[in-house]
Amino acid sequence: MNGTSYHPVLDPTLAPPFPKAVLPVLRNPQLRKNVAHAIDVIQAKRSRLVAEKVDWQELRSAGAAIREHSLAHLGAYLEQFEVRCTAAGGTVHWAADADEARRIIVEILRQENASEVIKIKTMTSAEIQLNPFLEAAGIKAYETDLAEIILQLGHEEPSHIVVPALHVNRSQVREIFAQSMGIEDLSDDPKALTAAARNYLRQKFLTVPTAISGANFLVAETGSVAIVESEGNGRMCLTLPNTMITLAGIEKVIPRFQDLEVMLQVLARSATGERMNPYTSLWSGVTPGDGPQRFHVVLLDNGRSEILAKNTERQTLRCIRCAACMNSCPVYRQTGGHAYGSVYPGPIGAILTPQLMQMNHAQSLPYASSLCGACYEVCPVKINIPEVLLELRSQLVNQERGKAAKFFDPMYLGLRAANLIFSRAWLFHSAQYLGRVGLKLFTGKDGWIHRLPSVGGEWTQTRDLRGLPKQPFHGWWAARQKEGR
Amino acid sequence: MKVPSDSRARILQQVHAATQKTENPGDLASTYSSLPRTYVRAGRLSATERIALMIERLREYDADVVVTIPDKLDAAIATQLKASGRHVFIAAEGLPASWMTDGFEWKIDRNLSAAEIETCEGVVTGSFGGIADSGTIVLHHSAREGRRIVSLLPDWHLCILYASRVVETLPEYFARCDQPPVLATYISGPSATADIEMTRIKGVHGPRFLNVIVVDDLGAELNIRQQGKEEISQGKST
Q: Above 80 in pLDDT, residue B2?
């Protein structure tokens, strides 16, 4: 039994729209229970640790300002990063899109004669779908983060950016490990499962000479990379191999080493509800005698520079991938990550994914939100996600506006009709009368409408609608006046 | 080996075009220095409270912490080593000879291979310092702190932390760095994961046991000598 009895598609160019993709999740009580449990635990820890921080709001303001400043001067800081990283012995590559990044990485691996590679968890590599590409090139990629191992061995898809296997519970992990590692008498105690993962990977860490990582931060001042993790798999990958390849989005750069005094404080608290994650590593280029002696950084654009050019949307790029927005999101708590059809789920995914797709795919995501604003409130770098959601919605509406097909769209026709009706009192009253008569057909004995035809069905698909009252307020008021009360 | 690419020029050109309105290339440094930094930078605890907080936070992470004075450090190390039940230890290359207790097998890390390090049961290193607020041990990987690999592979890590090197807040640590380090590892408790049902499990790939000896080198300012270690952890701020 796998964690998901269906196979979600996390490629935004192929994924079904959110309302459709969400259906198998909503019908999977085990998965919903797993997601809700994980979210509740993280949320409780986060709230406690944020509450003890007297300067939390000041840290958020500083975090937002540092990230916004980095973006406003991104070109200068990227060039500085390149100069410093190169001076420290690293090699910097630039990739305009996913395809170029994949080709650069495979080229480096070919020159290293690598047939295997160990990986630190990186969402950016998932964004460019690196693993299947490596496999096609004959290179076996081993994920080393516990959650990523669970997903890789269980052929599962990530549903969260910090704890990607939160939708899988212990008995499901036990089955995946027992089967793929060939351990028959494995218990479902997380301790035993963790030990199994440790044994499974130990030889890989000691023998595979090439590693791939993402980056939590790139420091322009020093040309260094920062990796934030818990298990030590990151330290293994960035210490033991001969060759290290870091794949990072161009937006990951921060100006100075000292800026980490803000970023590290807000990141761990927001992500896992810890004062500090167990391990943070920082390195600049190559250090003789210590760690990989060949070091490459691949800077990935893949749509980011276009987001940078837009006023409201630019703040999307401040994101430090802490996942606080999805942990606080009432929609995500019900659906988990798969329905978003992207490796970036939740509120940040709802704004990032369509933009990375130049608004040509994932158009349903900006609507996968109640605009309650919880994501904005918790965001450690103050990304106003509801503001960006609304901006993207308006762009999507404008996209539709130019199309002739809109004249056949029931939603469009309905809204045009509503526009007409709401602007004339007599039409409004007549429509109310017709509605009372017409909707009677659909109203149950309990006074609720459970199912509507056509476009109305999209509303009643997931909720009931109150039947119209026998008398509207206008009628009641008029009658009351007549009686002279 | 770098493939010449015009993507570099194209990306940078696009980025500069995108930020035309907001960038201020003439005076990047002064724009940077005017960023709001109203968060807490300096700590407010006394030295004793600061060390007590450091110890309390380390213990919350299941680290084993003992306190000693400089004169008794060698003996404290010997006690920890004996209590560990282990025999083969790695010493960071610059570890003082007196820290390497007789009666144990010591491998001094002069570029030992991963396979050799893997056969060792524990490691002893110094540290750059500590951050009390988050219970973080800082390594900058000097000769005494060791290469990154030596504090990673062995299952048992004994780290010597001088009280004078412990700051209260993370910004205070950054203020203490005259130069940004080339290499740094910040350790906040032993390796851990919560990937399965958010249940915290200690010990995944890094050392499963983190032992810290806090050396009270602040003299009269820090009253640890008179208090036992238990009293110190009770004196914590709540």
A: no
CB within 8 Å: A72 and B11: no
pLDDT score of A5? 67
- Nearest CB to A38 within list B18, B193, B197: B197
Residue A100 has φ and ψ, to the nearest 5°, of -65, -40
Question: Burial of B61 by CB count in 10 Å (0-12 exposed, 13-18 middle, 19+ buried)?
Answer: buried
d(CA B155, CA B210) in angstroms, rounded, equals: 9
- What distance in Å separates the CA atoms of residue B73 and residue B215, rounded to the nearest whole number? 7
Report yes or no: B17 and A74 within 8 Å, Cβ to Cβ. Answer: no
Structural domain spans, chain B:
47-234
Over residues B81-107, mean pLDDT: 97
- Judge whether B57 is closer than 8 Å to chain A, CB to CB: yes
Could B195 and A287 be called an inter-chain contact, meaning their C-beta atoms sit closer than 8 Å? no
**Does B170 sit within 8 Å of A264, measured CB to CB?**
yes
Residues in chain B closer than 8 A to A268 (CB atoms) = 134
Residues with Cβ within 8 Å of B178's Cβ and at least 6 positions away in sequence, in order, are: none
- ipTM > 0.95, yes or no: no
Residue A94's closest CA among A105, A106, A80? A105
Q: What is the pLDDT of residue B221?
A: 54
Q: Is the pLDDT of residue B225 over 70?
A: no
Whether B177 and chain A come into contact, CB under 8 Å, resolves to yes
Fold of B47-234: Rossmann fold (3.40.50)
- Give the 3-state DSSP-derived string for A160-226, with helices as H, strands as E and coil as C: CCCCCCCCCCHHHHHHHHHHHHCCCCCCCCHHHHHHHHHHHHHHHHHHCCEEEECCCEEECCCCEEE
- Residues of chain A below pLDDT 50: 1-2
CA-based nearest residue in chain A for residue B8? A94
**Cβ-based contacts of B111 with chain A (< 8 Å):** 289
- pLDDT tens column, A43-68: 999 999 999 999 999 999 999 999 99
Size of interface A-B (CB pairs under 8 A): 257
Both tokens assigned to A336: 């988990």
Please return the burial class of A109, using the count of CB atoms within 10 Å of its CB with bins 0-12, 13-18 and 19+. Answer: buried
Which pLDDT does position B1 carry in this prediction? 46
Nearest CA distance, A365 vs chain B (angstrom): 25
Helix (H, G, I), strand (E, B) or coil at B158: strand
Are residues B183 and A38, on separate chains, in Cβ contact within 8 Å?
Answer: no
- Residue B228 binned pLDDT confidence (cut-offs 50, 70, 90): very low
SS3 A125: helix
**How far is A222 from A81, CA to CA, in rounded Å?**
7
* Distance separating alpha carbons of residues B16 and B8, to the nearest angstrom: 12
From the centroid of its chain, how far is CA A414?
33
Query: Average of pLDDT values for B103-124?
Result: 96
Domains of chain A: residue spans and CATH: 42-305 (3.40.50.10420), 407-482 (no CATH)
Q: Do B190 and A301 touch (CB under 8 A)?
A: no
Residue B18 sits at the chain A interface (C-beta within 8 Å): yes
| C-beta separation of A323 from A346 below 8 A | yes
List, as ranges, residues 187-226 from B with C-beta within 8 Å of A. 187-199, 201, 203-207
